[in-house]
Please model this.
Amino acid sequence: MRYVMHRIAEHPDTDVTFAAECLHCGWKATPADDSASVDVACMSHTGRAGHAGFRRIRTSFAMVVRTE
Model:
């Protein structure tokens, strides 16, 4: 039996997606490829609704690969 070291890494052929949702009313930011636009949408929602709590979501695909 042989043991082989592995690591987990983001899949190279996929993008990372960022999203957010308000913890008070269920409002959701439009998912985007960059976190800055989602953050701006959250700040705009805070300005309009006064809600300051959000769940931020970062979605990516991963794969396990050998380290050798």
Summary: The chain has a mean pLDDT of 95.
